[in-house]
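Our platform keeps sequence and structure together, in a single record for each protein. This encoding replaces a full spatial description with a residue-level series of whole-number codes. We quote a single record here, exactly as it is kept in our systems:
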Amino acid sequence: MKPIVTAALCASILAGCASSPDRISAAYVSPIQYSGYDCDQVRSELMRVSGRVREVAGAQKQQANSDAIAMGVGLVLFWPALFFLAGGNDRKEELSRLKGEYDA
């Protein structure tokens, strides 16, 4: 019974960890919304989206690194630190959407 409880606890804690930004795939965004854009509008939108992707990816990477450190500390030194993993600022949905806009 104890191994089952331990495995369930580990799985729930790992589910709360933030994903690394390079492991987040792009969501589908229809390119039709950009069909009426001229070259300058497309260029400006691409620059806006790419800047936002860099910003959100940086925040996501920082959160993933913080979660990895908390996981290491929690597993080695102080297990209650693992509870801090669940309340993070995971921005994977926003990053996935932005990557999709960039691809579109």
User: Anything to note?
Assistant: The longest helix spans residues 39-76. Helices lie at 2-15, 39-76, 92-103.
